[in-house]
Amino acid sequence: MTLGRLYALGRGVLLPMGGFVTGWVAYRAVEEKGLIDESYLRQIRVGNLKLQLYLQQHVFPVAFTDKYGYSEDSLKTMIERLGREGGGNEGAERWTFEQILQECDLHGQIAWLEEHVSYDIPYFYIADIFNGWCILHRSLFTAETGDKRQGTILARWGDNNDAFASEVLCKGVVEKALNRVLPYDVAVRALCVLAVGHTSNAKLLSQIISPSVILERYEAYLNDLERRNMMSGDAVSSAEVAAATLELLRVLNLASVHRRWIPFWGRASTGPYPIASKLNEEMWCKCLGTLPAGTTKLCADATLIFADILSELFNCQGGTRQLNMDCGDKTS
Prior knowledge:
By secondary structure, this protein is an all-alpha fold. It has helices at residues 3-32, 38-58, 62-68, 72-83, 97-102, 106-117, 126-136, 146-150, 154-157, 167-178, 184-197, 199-208, 211-227, 238-256, 281-288, 295-298, 301-313, 319-324.
């Protein structure tokens, strides 16, 4: 290849690509640091949606749109919702994804999330959508009132609302979490909602994601908070993330328990805590042996007992006593 062709290639292809990547990185950096007013960010997001709608209607092949794009109705709905605040009506209420999801029944929520999580090319605000859904169902993994703390959550885990059962959503959220499309603080809460919502979800999740991977991702999440000097959490409090992590591990443990009823027949019984053999003891003690401030107030007693017992099994120093502070009826 001659020097002239190389120059032409760089000018015609590499330079535009470099400019696009540089502009996108700069935009994300400015957005994360809050250097752009929220109204402008909202206008940019609405503009992106309108651009995609135009491209799907007039430019992209139908086969490509069907595989990678959103339906026209979904795009128009998102444009309408996100554009209300900046559409000339300054008094209009700002709609969040939580509010949009709240307008749907549970079947509608699951269907909408399944549509988003199935795309190979996820939207940049997919984490915001799932975060809104987690906020909407926060009561499934937190127990802030005295009445809730009296329950073991085991009964709630057994409610089995059929609308929650979704193999597509379970596999999709796991895939997006492992590929770091969904940040840990969003992914773990979404997985927890799914696992608590229906036993079939919990059993499926226990087969497709290892508890050790969850613990490793939680450790990476804590390390990232420490690096940024934000130990209380970023958009979501670290206490809520810890509570969701513990509850998810507890429910996955329940889903993994097996008891052999006929002696010498079938798979051997696992015992009450099969998850213990899949976790790194040192990592558990480091990450969950001592919980962030406020975590015990968010956890139900069953979750704290689960954490307490594992900390004892792993001989964590101090972690068990810390958990017992909020549960005076338990003994070390």
